[in-house]
Amino acid sequence: MTQEAVETIQCTHHWQIESPNGPVSIGRCKRCGEIREFNNSIQGSGWDRQGSHNRRLRQAKSSS
Q1: Which residue has the higher pLDDT, 5 or 17?
Q2: What is the reported pTM?
């Protein structure tokens, strides 16, 4: 195993996440440089109210 791989496995990440712009934001660990995607909202949360409202309307129409 390379030294870089050992450092990545043992890293306690300190994520620096870009500002929200769409469903995900890119984060980069300030310590090891790992890059990862982070969700900007959780489906069904308060941020998705319009989506769940539309879903309920479609369900009501389909059950009629």
Answers
A1: 17
A2: 0.51
